[in-house]
Amino acid sequence: MTRRIAQAGKNKEKVASSTVVKALHVLHILADICETQTSGASVSEISRLAEENPSSVCKHLAAFQRIGLVEQDSLTERYRIGMYSLRLAAIALKTLNIRDIASPLLRKLADQVGETVHLVVRDGLRVVYIDKVESPKTIRMHSQIGLRNPMYCTGVGKAILAFSPKPLLEAVIAEGLMPFTTHTLATRGALLDDLETIKQRGYAIDDGEHELEVRCAAAPIFNHLKEPAASFSVSGPKWRMDDDRLKEIGEMVRNVSIEISAKLGYR
C-alpha cells in the first residue's frame, strides 16, 4: 500500500513537471513572436508553433496572465509579454556579475573610440544584449537591451562561436544560415573559415553581415573555466569604420577582452 502511494506521488510529480515544461514552452514561443511582431500573437499562431492544442495553450496563457507575465489586448485578443517580465529581467540583470565587472572597462572603451559598445551573453543559439554604451555621435546604432540576434551573422555571436565546443557550432549550422544581407556568411565553408580567422586574430569582424550599413569588431570574454562566457563589440556606420579603423578598434577590443577575462579568473 505504501509503495503504491509513493508511486502515485512520483507519477503526479512527473505530470506536474511535464505541464510546467509545456507551459514555459508556450511562453518561449510567445516571446519569440513578440520579438518580430509588436502586435503580439494569436492563440492559433502559438498553438501551431508550440505544437499544442489551442485549449491547452489558452490554459497556459491564462495562468501567466494572472501573474502578469502575459497580457491580452482586449480589442484584438492577441497576447504579448506582460510587464511582470520586466521585474524578472531586472533581477536577472542585477545578478549578472559579468555585467558589473565589464561595465567600467566597456565605458572607458566607448569613450576612447566614440562608438556604440554592446555586451552580450549566449542564449541558446542566439545572443542576447545585456548592456549598451551609446555613442555620443548623432548618427549611431539603434539597438536595445534584451534584443536577441543570431550568432553566425553578428560580430558578438561569431566571437563566442569561434571559441565554443563543436556541438554548438553544428547546432547553429543545422538551424540554417539565413542570409540577412549580401555579406552574410551563409555557407558552412565560409563560416568555418571566418571562425578560424577569428581564433587566430583574437577578435571577430561583422562586415555588414546582419545590417548592411553597420560594421563592428567584437571579442569574447572568457571565464575561469576558459569558456566564452560573453562577448562585446564596438559598432558603427561603415563610412566611419573603414578597414584601417576597424583593425585599430579590433586590436583595442582584443586587449580589453584580456582585461575583463582576467577579472573573471581567466588565466
From TrEMBL:
It comes from the Bacteria. Residues 84-266 form the IclR-ED domain. Keywords: DNA-binding, Transcription, Transcription regulation. One of its GO terms (molecular function) is DNA-binding transcription factor activity. Residues 17-83 form the HTH iclR-type domain. InterPro entries: GAF-like_dom_sf, HTH_MetabolicPath_Reg, Tscrpt_reg_IclR_C, Tscrpt_reg_IclR_N, WH-like_DNA-bd_sf, WH_DNA-bd_sf. Pfam families: HTH_IclR (PF09339), IclR_C (PF01614). One of its GO terms (biological process) is negative regulation of DNA-templated transcription. This is IclR family transcriptional regulator. It comes from Paenibacillus piri.
